[in-house]
Amino acid sequence: MHNDNEVMIAGEALLETACFGAGIPAEAEQELRLAGQFYQQDDKAEAHLYRALELAPRHIAVHIGLYRFYFYKGRLAEALDIAVQCLEQAAACIGVTADWRSVQRGDAEFDSYISILPRFYLFTLKAYGYLHMRLGNLDAGRAITNKLLELDPQDKLGGRVLIQVLDRIGKDEYDD
Domain ranges in the chain? Predict the structure, then answer.
């Protein structure tokens, strides 16, 4: 006989594995593989990624694939669009509002080492802030990174480094 806690943990484990690849339709998984094979041919790789998205529109693994493709190709504005989708997916997975500004520390187990979904949300938030910074949206990047630090006060994900970089803009190495 299972107690409620065991059932909750089993349900959470299923959700986590689904968010990170389990449960993806075989056809969508094949499209992701083909996108990797054709990575050097942008048009082909992108077509396979969007075919995977068509086949599995809510599967986080597809969104992650798109994000990584755009990020590593230096197509940062497109990566930012996908980061928004990833952030929305991560928020849905942990049961918090889609508006990152409204998320509070107690809304999810952001310090948990057991549940990886809240940490995935934080990683996604960090990527979102970083992309804003790279695209010159420094105020937005700072606000997002400050939210990251609010949710991750021990700075396990390294958000303070991004703030330090922002604080150094326009200063030479001898300024304090």
Answer: 1-74, 83-176
